Amino acid sequence: MPVWLAAGAWGLVGGLALVLGALVAWFVRVPRVVVASVMAFGAGVLIAALAFDLVDEAERSGGLAATVIGFLVGAAVYVLANVVLARRGARHRKRSGDQQPSEQDAAGSGAAIAIGALLDGIPESVVLGLSLLAGGAVSVGVLVAVFISNVPEGLSSAAGMKRAGRSAGYVFGVWGGIAVISGLAALLGVLLLRDASAVTVAGITAVAAGAILTMIADTMIPEAFERAHVMTGLVTTLGFLTAFTVQRLT
Protein backbone atom coordinates (compact mmCIF):
# COMPACT_ATOMS: atom_id res chain seq x y z
CA MET A 1 0.00 0.00 0.00
CA PRO A 2 1.40 3.46 -0.87
CA VAL A 3 2.50 5.46 2.16
CA TRP A 4 0.07 8.29 1.40
CA LEU A 5 -2.86 5.86 1.27
CA ALA A 6 -1.79 4.16 4.50
CA ALA A 7 -1.58 7.60 6.13
CA GLY A 8 -5.13 8.37 5.05
CA ALA A 9 -6.36 5.04 6.37
CA TRP A 10 -4.73 5.52 9.78
CA GLY A 11 -6.00 9.08 9.99
CA LEU A 12 -9.50 7.77 9.32
CA VAL A 13 -9.09 5.13 12.04
CA GLY A 14 -8.13 7.82 14.54
CA GLY A 15 -11.09 9.96 13.47
CA LEU A 16 -13.53 7.06 13.77
CA ALA A 17 -12.71 6.88 17.47
CA LEU A 18 -14.60 10.17 17.76
CA VAL A 19 -17.63 8.57 16.10
CA LEU A 20 -17.36 5.62 18.48
CA GLY A 21 -17.39 7.95 21.46
CA ALA A 22 -20.37 9.86 20.04
CA LEU A 23 -22.29 6.61 19.53
CA VAL A 24 -21.74 5.62 23.15
CA ALA A 25 -22.87 9.05 24.36
CA TRP A 26 -25.99 9.05 22.19
CA PHE A 27 -27.29 5.60 23.14
CA VAL A 28 -25.86 5.02 26.63
CA ARG A 29 -26.22 7.28 29.65
CA VAL A 30 -22.64 7.37 30.88
CA PRO A 31 -22.12 8.94 34.34
CA ARG A 32 -20.31 12.25 34.01
CA VAL A 33 -17.63 11.23 36.47
CA VAL A 34 -16.81 8.28 34.17
CA VAL A 35 -16.65 10.60 31.16
CA ALA A 36 -14.35 12.93 33.08
CA SER A 37 -12.09 10.09 34.22
CA VAL A 38 -11.73 8.72 30.72
CA MET A 39 -11.02 12.24 29.48
CA ALA A 40 -8.25 12.62 32.08
CA PHE A 41 -6.80 9.25 31.04
CA GLY A 42 -6.85 10.31 27.38
CA ALA A 43 -5.11 13.57 28.25
CA GLY A 44 -2.32 11.66 29.98
CA VAL A 45 -1.93 9.37 26.98
CA LEU A 46 -1.64 12.31 24.59
CA ILE A 47 0.90 14.10 26.80
CA ALA A 48 3.10 10.99 26.79
CA ALA A 49 2.86 10.73 23.00
CA LEU A 50 3.88 14.37 22.70
CA ALA A 51 6.87 13.94 24.99
CA PHE A 52 8.25 10.61 23.81
CA ASP A 53 7.18 10.44 20.16
CA LEU A 54 6.45 13.80 18.59
CA VAL A 55 8.61 16.48 20.20
CA ASP A 56 11.54 14.16 20.84
CA GLU A 57 11.53 12.89 17.25
CA ALA A 58 11.15 16.41 15.86
CA GLU A 59 14.16 17.64 17.86
CA ARG A 60 16.34 14.70 16.87
CA SER A 61 15.53 14.96 13.17
CA GLY A 62 15.19 18.72 12.69
CA GLY A 63 17.02 20.32 15.56
CA LEU A 64 16.04 22.25 18.66
CA ALA A 65 15.41 25.61 16.97
CA ALA A 66 12.87 24.27 14.45
CA THR A 67 11.14 22.28 17.17
CA VAL A 68 10.85 25.15 19.62
CA ILE A 69 9.66 27.62 16.99
CA GLY A 70 7.16 25.17 15.53
CA PHE A 71 5.84 24.22 18.96
CA LEU A 72 5.23 27.85 19.93
CA VAL A 73 3.63 28.65 16.57
CA GLY A 74 1.25 25.70 16.91
CA ALA A 75 0.23 26.76 20.41
CA ALA A 76 -0.28 30.39 19.39
CA VAL A 77 -2.32 29.56 16.30
CA TYR A 78 -4.55 27.21 18.29
CA VAL A 79 -5.14 29.83 20.99
CA LEU A 80 -6.05 32.52 18.45
CA ALA A 81 -8.43 30.23 16.57
CA ASN A 82 -9.95 29.02 19.84
CA VAL A 83 -10.57 32.59 21.02
CA VAL A 84 -12.46 33.38 17.82
CA LEU A 85 -14.55 30.20 18.06
CA ALA A 86 -15.24 30.70 21.78
CA ARG A 87 -16.83 34.06 21.01
CA ARG A 88 -19.18 32.28 18.62
CA GLY A 89 -20.38 29.67 21.10
CA ALA A 90 -17.76 26.90 20.89
CA ARG A 91 -15.99 27.53 24.22
CA HIS A 92 -17.49 24.45 25.90
CA ARG A 93 -17.51 22.12 22.89
CA LYS A 94 -15.93 19.25 24.85
CA ARG A 95 -18.15 19.59 27.90
CA SER A 96 -20.63 16.81 28.63
CA GLY A 97 -22.91 18.90 30.85
CA ASP A 98 -25.22 21.82 30.18
CA GLN A 99 -22.54 24.35 29.24
CA GLN A 100 -22.90 24.04 25.47
CA PRO A 101 -25.36 26.59 24.03
CA SER A 102 -28.24 25.60 21.79
CA GLU A 103 -28.78 27.30 18.48
CA GLN A 104 -31.54 29.32 20.13
CA ASP A 105 -29.13 30.46 22.84
CA ALA A 106 -26.39 31.45 20.39
CA ALA A 107 -27.11 31.57 16.67
CA GLY A 108 -24.28 30.04 14.70
CA SER A 109 -22.92 28.11 17.67
CA GLY A 110 -23.57 24.82 15.89
CA ALA A 111 -21.19 25.71 13.09
CA ALA A 112 -18.65 27.09 15.56
CA ILE A 113 -18.72 23.89 17.61
CA ALA A 114 -18.24 21.80 14.45
CA ILE A 115 -15.30 23.94 13.33
CA GLY A 116 -13.84 23.81 16.82
CA ALA A 117 -14.04 20.02 16.87
CA LEU A 118 -12.27 20.00 13.51
CA LEU A 119 -9.60 22.34 14.89
CA ASP A 120 -8.99 19.86 17.72
CA GLY A 121 -8.75 16.84 15.43
CA ILE A 122 -6.62 17.93 12.47
CA PRO A 123 -3.24 18.24 14.29
CA GLU A 124 -3.58 14.68 15.59
CA SER A 125 -4.27 13.39 12.08
CA VAL A 126 -1.33 15.27 10.61
CA VAL A 127 1.12 13.78 13.11
CA LEU A 128 -0.24 10.31 12.41
CA GLY A 129 0.57 10.79 8.73
CA LEU A 130 3.98 12.29 9.43
CA SER A 131 4.90 9.33 11.64
CA LEU A 132 4.84 7.18 8.50
CA LEU A 133 7.31 9.51 6.82
CA ALA A 134 9.67 9.18 9.76
CA GLY A 135 9.67 5.40 10.05
CA GLY A 136 7.85 3.91 7.08
CA ALA A 137 5.12 2.58 9.38
CA VAL A 138 2.64 4.31 11.62
CA SER A 139 3.88 5.05 15.14
CA VAL A 140 1.97 2.66 17.38
CA GLY A 141 2.40 4.99 20.35
CA VAL A 142 0.89 7.96 18.49
CA LEU A 143 -1.93 5.84 17.05
CA VAL A 144 -2.86 4.43 20.46
CA ALA A 145 -2.72 7.90 22.01
CA VAL A 146 -4.94 9.45 19.32
CA PHE A 147 -7.48 6.63 19.44
CA ILE A 148 -7.69 6.44 23.24
CA SER A 149 -8.01 10.22 23.58
CA ASN A 150 -10.53 10.60 20.75
CA VAL A 151 -13.09 8.21 22.26
CA PRO A 152 -13.69 10.32 25.40
CA GLU A 153 -13.46 13.54 23.35
CA GLY A 154 -16.29 12.33 21.10
CA LEU A 155 -18.21 10.94 24.06
CA SER A 156 -18.06 14.08 26.16
CA SER A 157 -18.71 16.52 23.35
CA ALA A 158 -21.58 14.49 21.88
CA ALA A 159 -23.19 14.23 25.33
CA GLY A 160 -23.05 18.02 25.59
CA MET A 161 -24.48 18.41 22.09
CA LYS A 162 -27.36 16.11 22.96
CA ARG A 163 -28.13 18.06 26.13
CA ALA A 164 -28.13 21.27 24.09
CA GLY A 165 -30.83 19.84 21.83
CA ARG A 166 -28.67 19.08 18.79
CA SER A 167 -30.15 16.48 16.44
CA ALA A 168 -28.66 13.06 15.72
CA GLY A 169 -28.05 14.23 12.16
CA TYR A 170 -25.98 17.14 13.41
CA VAL A 171 -24.01 15.12 15.97
CA PHE A 172 -23.09 12.24 13.70
CA GLY A 173 -22.70 14.51 10.70
CA VAL A 174 -20.08 16.47 12.65
CA TRP A 175 -18.12 13.46 13.87
CA GLY A 176 -18.47 11.46 10.66
CA GLY A 177 -17.30 14.47 8.66
CA ILE A 178 -14.36 15.02 10.99
CA ALA A 179 -13.36 11.36 10.68
CA VAL A 180 -13.24 11.69 6.89
CA ILE A 181 -11.38 15.01 7.04
CA SER A 182 -8.93 13.46 9.53
CA GLY A 183 -8.08 10.81 6.97
CA LEU A 184 -7.68 13.42 4.24
CA ALA A 185 -5.47 15.58 6.50
CA ALA A 186 -3.13 12.66 7.18
CA LEU A 187 -3.07 11.75 3.48
CA LEU A 188 -2.38 15.29 2.31
CA GLY A 189 0.29 15.75 4.96
CA VAL A 190 2.26 12.85 3.52
CA LEU A 191 1.71 13.89 -0.10
CA LEU A 192 2.80 17.47 0.52
CA LEU A 193 5.75 16.71 2.77
CA ARG A 194 7.19 13.44 1.47
CA ASP A 195 9.97 15.29 -0.36
CA ALA A 196 10.43 17.98 2.29
CA SER A 197 13.59 18.38 4.33
CA ALA A 198 13.95 16.89 7.79
CA VAL A 199 13.87 20.38 9.29
CA THR A 200 10.56 21.17 7.56
CA VAL A 201 8.95 17.91 8.66
CA ALA A 202 10.21 18.45 12.20
CA GLY A 203 8.83 21.98 12.23
CA ILE A 204 5.38 20.85 11.04
CA THR A 205 5.37 18.02 13.57
CA ALA A 206 6.22 20.50 16.32
CA VAL A 207 3.45 22.87 15.17
CA ALA A 208 0.93 20.04 15.45
CA ALA A 209 2.35 18.99 18.83
CA GLY A 210 2.08 22.53 20.20
CA ALA A 211 -1.54 22.74 19.07
CA ILE A 212 -2.33 19.37 20.67
CA LEU A 213 -0.82 20.29 24.03
CA THR A 214 -2.71 23.58 24.06
CA MET A 215 -5.93 21.74 23.21
CA ILE A 216 -5.35 19.36 26.13
CA ALA A 217 -4.92 22.24 28.57
CA ASP A 218 -7.79 24.33 27.16
CA THR A 219 -10.48 21.72 26.60
CA MET A 220 -9.70 18.23 27.96
CA ILE A 221 -8.30 18.96 31.42
CA PRO A 222 -11.08 21.45 32.38
CA GLU A 223 -13.77 18.88 31.49
CA ALA A 224 -11.92 16.17 33.40
CA PHE A 225 -11.35 18.28 36.52
CA GLU A 226 -14.93 19.54 36.67
CA ARG A 227 -16.22 16.08 37.54
CA ALA A 228 -13.23 13.95 38.62
CA HIS A 229 -11.74 16.68 40.86
CA VAL A 230 -8.94 15.27 43.03
CA MET A 231 -8.77 12.05 40.99
CA THR A 232 -7.90 13.94 37.80
CA GLY A 233 -4.16 14.00 38.44
CA LEU A 234 -3.98 10.30 39.32
CA VAL A 235 -6.00 9.18 36.30
CA THR A 236 -3.98 11.45 34.00
CA THR A 237 -0.80 9.90 35.40
CA LEU A 238 -2.15 6.41 34.68
CA GLY A 239 -2.85 7.46 31.10
CA PHE A 240 0.67 8.85 30.76
CA LEU A 241 2.24 5.65 32.12
CA THR A 242 0.09 3.49 29.84
CA ALA A 243 1.23 5.37 26.74
CA PHE A 244 4.85 5.39 27.95
CA THR A 245 4.73 1.61 28.45
CA VAL A 246 3.27 1.06 24.98
CA GLN A 247 5.95 3.28 23.48
CA ARG A 248 8.73 1.33 25.20
CA LEU A 249 7.31 -2.07 24.26
CA THR A 250 6.84 -1.29 20.54
Describe, in plain words, how this protein is organized in 3D.
The protein has eight helices and no strands. It is an all-alpha fold. α1 runs antiparallel to α6 and α4 runs parallel beside α6 (168-193). The protein is globular, with a radius of gyration of 17 Å. The chain starts with a helix and ends with a helix.
The ordered string of helix (H) and strand (E) elements is HHHHHHHH
Taking Cα atoms only, what radius of gyration do you get, to the nearest Å?
A: 17 Å
Q: In terms of structural class, how would the helical and strand content be classed?
A: mainly alpha
Q: Oligomeric state of the chains?
A: single chain
**Sheet with the most strands, sense and barrel status:** none
Count, helices: 8
Shape descriptor reads: globular
Beta percentage is under 5%
Residue runs with pLDDT of under 50 for 5 or more positions: none
How far is the N terminus from the C terminus? 22 Å
Mean pLDDT: 82
Overall helicity = over 70%
Q: What's the β-strand tally?
A: 0
Secondary-structure map with pairings?
Blueprint: H1 3-27, H2 32-62, H3 64-90, H4 109-135, H5 140-163, H6 168-193, H7 198-228, H8 232-249
Helix pairs in contact: 1-4, 1-5, 1-6, 2-3, 2-5, 2-7, 2-8, 3-4, 3-7, 4-5, 4-6, 4-7, 5-8
